[in-house]
Design a protein that fits this description.
Strand order of the largest sheet: 3-2-1-4-5-7-6
Shape: globular
Mean pLDDT: 90
Low-confidence stretches: none
Distance between the termini: 49 Å
CATH superfamily of the largest domain: Vaccinia Virus protein VP39
Order of helices and strands: HEHEHEHEHHHHHHHEHEHE
CATH topology of the largest domain: Rossmann fold
Helix content: 40-55%
Structural class: alpha/beta
Largest sheet: 7 strands, mixed
Strand content: 15-25%
Radius of gyration: 21 Å
Number of strands: 7
Length: 307
């Protein structure tokens, strides 16, 4: 299955806000769907920089660099956004977008080890040139810590039973073996969902430090945005969406007045304005079932008062 970019037009249109030039960041290039549409709407003076750490995404990006001189790829996590831009002398930008989660090619290629639907080596690394594989990670993590990961990142109520079964199995080298261990250990799972869905999600999030990267990325995205620049982020599960929601709310609301006595005029420190929250249409979900859980949140950079 080829990768279908989720909320494609909604994301690009919200990011541009009727502009047709400027500097833009695709923080999760993937297979380039959002970037290609963005480039098609920009003039010859615009620039787009993509970030990705997946080797196959980098190959696709290198081809696009050859096709369009307005685009450059940066082999790095979006968690290093600000540093990477500074090293290249790139100042403030007009928009930052991110499409979180795993791309369809990653899920569909058995050798990447992301999916319980296709047997392959238990890898799960988005950047498979460094760091421990999921198989190695499972061998070294303690049972209690593993149970906590499965509970927190997978929101799996039977995390302790599953962690116990995984650790009792010893070295697990394939996705099929892990999926079967979880299935046997799991007493009850959701209809139309594989028993290992939440466990695989949790392990993937943990070894790729996905939530940590989002927490680091969001403040950096805000720092590199010009006034009126847009931030557009697509999430695919509640843990991601909660981080984005809380960040935007914090930056879009006045700080609480903690002064005692007479009320004082508070300094307006708001740095973002909420623009929209959009989910995939029924038509898109029908065409691409993986868009079912997607949410797009959009916010706009405000000028600080008195600046």
């Amino acid at each position: 299955m080829s990768h279908i970019s989720v909320l494609l037009h909604e994301t690009v249109d919200a990011l541009l806000a009727d502009r047709n030039t400027g500097i833009y960041i695709d923080a999760t290039f993937g297979r380039g769907g959002h970037t290609r549409l963005l480039l098609s709407k920009l003039d010859e003076h615009a620039r787009v920089y993509g970030f990705d750490k997946d080797p196959q995404a980098l190959e696709t990006a290198a081809q696009l660099e050859q096709e369009d001189s307005r685009f450059k790829i940066i082999h790095a996590s979006f968690g290093d956004l600000k540093q990477e831009l500074e090293e290249r002398g790139i100042g403030l930008v007009d928009g930052v977008m991110a499409d979180l989660g795993v791309s369809s090619p990653q899920l569909d290629q058995a050798e990447r080890g992301f999916s319980f639907m296709k047997d392959g080596p238990l890898d799960m690394r988005m950047d498979n040139s460094k760091g421990p594989t999921a198989a190695e990670w499972l061998m070294h993590i303690e049972e209690e810590a593993l149970a906590n990961v499965i509970f927190q990142y997978g929101e799996e109520r039977y995390s302790r039973r599953i962690a116990k079964a995984i650790k009792a199995a010893g070295y697990i080298d394939t996705t099929a073996k892990l999926a079967e261990i979880v299935k046997v250990a799991h007493p009850k799972w959701e209809k139309h969902k594989h028993a290992a869905t939440r466990t695989f999600q949790a392990i993937r999030i943990a070894i790729n430090k996905e939530l940590e990267d989002i927490e680091v990325f969001l403040p950096q995205a805000l720092e590199v945005l010009k006034t009126d620049g847009r931030l557009a982020v697509i999430s695919f599960h509640s843990l991601e969406d909660r981080l984005i929601k809380q960040f935007i709310q914090k930056e879009a609301n006045l700080a609480e007045d903690t002064s005692w006595g007479m009320p004082q005029e508070r300094e307006d420190t708001r740095r973002l304005k909420k623009i929209s929250r959009v989910r995939a249409s029924d038509e898109e979900v029908k065409a691409n079932p993986r868009s079912r859980s997607a949410w797009l949140r959009v916010a706009e950079r405000l000028a600080l008062k008195g600046k």
